[in-house]
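Anyone have tokens for UDP-3-O-(3-hydroxymyristoyl)glucosamine N-acyltransferase? Sequence:
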Amino acid sequence: MSSIRLADLARQLDAQLHGDGNISITGIASMGSAQEGQITFLSDSRFRENLSSCQASAVVLTADSLPCVTGAALVVRDPYLTYARMAQLMDTTPKPAEDIGAGAIISTNATFGERVAVGANAVIESGVVLGDDVIIGPGCFIGKNTRIGAGTRLWANVTVYHDIFIGERCLIQSGTVIGADGFGYANDRGDWIKIPQLGRVIIGDRVEIGACTTIDRGALDDTRIGNGVIIDNQCQLAHNVVIGDNTAVAGGVIMAGSLTIGRYCMIGGASVINGHITICDRVIVTGMGMVMRSIAEPGVYSSGIPLQPNKEWRKTAALVMNISDMRKRMNTIERKLAKTHRSRSL
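Reply: yep, here.
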């Protein structure tokens, strides 16, 4: 979209228009950098004072901030949510592919819906089923008998192994690998014996997966990602992980095998979560959390020691290393005090 009338944008966003509806909006920008022809938004009332110097042609805001604006405005209940929808309307991101690209290798036993596009040098193996409006970016590999639902888009160099199911209207960024073998081995007197990973990966509808994330296939049962889940870049999801609907996973998270995470959870960046545990619905794990045991109650959970100057951290580390001895000494002192108290009571 190159431009849109402010009145038309207000209508599509279900916003209340104040000011000249004929203003042409050509883009979105932050409040500090916006220029004429662009629209911005105010989602935090603490920054109202910046409205007086803002050069945007229009501002998205709440009704209580409207008196601070002299120009055009769109009044909404949630400016940040409206910003997200506005960005979708004005998105200029190109499609990952158009038509069938040069060098694409497509099995004669693959099944395509309507308006499917496959980028240059992509490989589509036998038994693959692609729904309507699926877009496969350049250099992707789609393994045997995989099914991808309508409207799903894969950017360049995504690898999807065999027997994978991906739902409708998903978005998978470049370099992601779905369905690689889980880390399964048995030890025979020092030798590692590989356990073939026989499960699949099942991904629901409206799932978004960031760049260079890996989702391993199940060992026997399937790895499952629910509807509406969003996963950031460079995450590792091991075999048989199950994630409930609408959970968000920030960048760099590592999940060990056979972990179950509930619905509407938020996992902070660089967190590490143990395998064979369960996290209930509506749990928030803050960044760099280390989750070693199951969580049975909704809420916010944190772990780790905040950054300190090295000299202070070394003292803290020394105390932690000696905590067992400190506990023994404390128990000894408590027993002596209790004994003294009993003697005086007699």
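The helical segments are 6-13, 79-89, 310-321, 323-345.
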